[in-house]
Amino acid sequence: MILALKILLFLGTVLAMEGGAWLAHKYLMHGPMWFLHKDHHVKRPDQVMEKNDWFAFLFALPAIALIWIGVHVWSWALPVGIGITAYGLIYFIFHDMIVHQRIRMKLPDWPYLNRIVEAHRIHHHVRTKEGCVSFGFVITPKPSWLKAKLKAMKAAKTPQ
């Protein structure tokens, strides 16, 4: 029974991380930590690494701490730390490998993959700190909705 609860805690953590990633992306990366995230939106063609890559290390720290605590102090922290790590791996595969093609690969023509790629490209359509849409990654709204929202936001800023 305890193993089943720990598995559920792991799965719940992986799912909850999408919400945490959304909040971090919208309110930290497009907020006070824009100085690290900016070069992800405005990338030089010859640029291999980005300041934005530091977020992987920053977000790994709680996972490392929870895994250590889970092994040495309180076992219930372990599935949470592993869940955060699993989400980080999922994010790396989808964001860096599939969307940004940092590791070149041929992608299958799957509707879900096409949807997340298009949603992220719509997010990158805006090159500034403000005015972006689509801050989540594994769960995204329909691209048509994102385009309409982006268009409405631009229209609201345009003087009539």
From TrEMBL:
<keyword id="KW-0812">Transmembrane</keyword>
<comment type="similarity">
    <text>Belongs to the sterol desaturase family.</text>
</comment>
<keyword id="KW-1133">Transmembrane helix</keyword>
<dbReference type="InterPro" id="IPR045019">
    <property type="entry name" value="BETA-OHASE-like"/>
</dbReference>
<dbReference type="GO" id="GO:0016119">
    <property type="term" value="P:carotene metabolic process"/>
</dbReference>
<protein>
    <submittedName>
        <fullName>Beta-carotene hydroxylase</fullName>
    </submittedName>
</protein>
<keyword id="KW-0125">Carotenoid biosynthesis</keyword>
<dbReference type="GO" id="GO:0010291">
    <property type="term" value="F:beta-carotene 3-hydroxylase activity"/>
</dbReference>
<feature type="domain" description="Fatty acid hydroxylase">
    <location>
        <begin position="11"/>
        <end position="138"/>
    </location>
</feature>
<dbReference type="GO" id="GO:0016123">
    <property type="term" value="P:xanthophyll biosynthetic process"/>
</dbReference>
<keyword id="KW-0472">Membrane</keyword>
<feature type="transmembrane region" description="Helical">
    <location>
        <begin position="54"/>
        <end position="70"/>
    </location>
</feature>
<dbReference type="GO" id="GO:0005506">
    <property type="term" value="F:iron ion binding"/>
</dbReference>
<keyword id="KW-0560">Oxidoreductase</keyword>
<feature type="transmembrane region" description="Helical">
    <location>
        <begin position="76"/>
        <end position="94"/>
    </location>
</feature>
<dbReference type="InterPro" id="IPR006694">
    <property type="entry name" value="Fatty_acid_hydroxylase"/>
</dbReference>
<feature type="transmembrane region" description="Helical">
    <location>
        <begin position="6"/>
        <end position="24"/>
    </location>
</feature>
<dbReference type="Pfam" id="PF04116">
    <property type="entry name" value="FA_hydroxylase"/>
</dbReference>
